[in-house]
Design goal:
This protein is an alpha/beta fold. The chain is built from eleven helices and twelve strands. The chain is elongated and about 65 Å long.
């Protein structure tokens, strides 16, 4: 399927981009622009994110499924592409704003041409102020960041080192009077330092998807009634009960009322059966 490039004059800009200082002269887009009734959340973070950062994005973004909300990011390596991927897996609208043009030949990075194509095929869009054949340069990325911050009602900062380029988008979010949300991190980890700078300045801490919905003033859906898992043994049901959120192996074993060796064997058997899964000793259940 072909996705032609369209040009937008200033009068046709999404509302958020009509309000920012120094708006672009024109915009180019492919695919579908977000509808007016969609609340946009930009997700930003480093190129080299931690396992914690990956788990955070997967948990928070997947929790936004089925709400009138879209995910915006910059198509870059690392956290940007992860945010787009998680949105796609959960059938959430996503808009990519790369640091260059949106012709297939100049999509940057080149390895994300297939990701850009999947975004378009899913009903999402590509947006840029640069000419369609413009190749990304060092200065074009900070310039692009103001569009990411400006088009969104809020920005979620997941991880950032003290001098990370990601902080440019966070600062612009504050300057544009948008909501800035941050995920608290490990105080000993370098990728938490930039995040904690903004926590000290009054950014909203986020620990679950419900926090995001509350900031964006999106009414939360009533939870579905829980169906008892009748096919599991009482011990297995206890494991699932304790995995309402990702939990470290040691903490999970501590919570189970079983001898340590029996608890470890139970987790191993449930993992082999596909009922739970672990990544670096962090367990989560796979049952819905």
């Amino acid at each position: 399927m072909d996705f032609p490039i369209h040009r937008l004059a200033a009068a046709g800009f999404p509302t958020g981009l009509q309000e920012i200082p120094q708006p672009p002269a024109a915009l180019y887009y492919r695919g579908q622009l977000p509808t007016a009734d969609l609340t946009l959340l930009s997700v930003v973070g480093p190129r080299k994110y931690s396992l914690y950062g990956k788990q955070v994005v997967e948990e928070l973004v997947s929790g936004l499924r089925d709400y009138p909300l879209g995910i915006v990011s910059g198509l870059a390596l690392g956290m940007d592409s992860l945010a787009h991927e998680v949105a796609l897996r959960n059938h959430i609208y996503t808009l990519a704003i790369p640091g260059g043009g949106i012709n297939d030949e100049v999509i940057y990075p080149a390895r994300h041409k297939s990701l850009a194509r999947r975004i378009l095929e899913s009903g999402g869009g590509l947006l840029s102020e640069f000419e369609p054949d413009f190749r990304a340069t060092k200065w074009s990325f900070p310039q692009r960041n103001r569009l990411v911050a400006g088009i969104s009602q809020a920005t979620l900062l997941v991880e950032a080192a003290e001098k990370s380029g990601t902080l440019i988008t966070a600062r612009m979010t504050v300057d544009y009077n948008r909501d800035l949300m941050v995920v608290p991190g490990n105080i000993f980890h370098n990728t938490s330092r930039g995040v904690h700078q903004f926590l000290k300045l009054g950014a909203t801490p986020v620990t679950c998807s419900e926090d995001i919905l509350e900031v964006l003033k999106i009414k939360q859906q009533s939870p579905l009634p829980v169906t008892p898992i009748v096919s599991l043994s009482p011990a297995e049901q206890q494991v699932i009960k304790h995995l309402s959120e990702p939990t470290h192996r040691d903490e999970l074993i501590r919570r189970l009322d079983l001898p340590t060796n029996e608890a470890a064997q139970l987790l191993m058997m449930m993992e082999l059966a596909g009922q739970i899964k672990s990544e670096q000793n962090i367990y989560r259940h796979t049952l819905t």
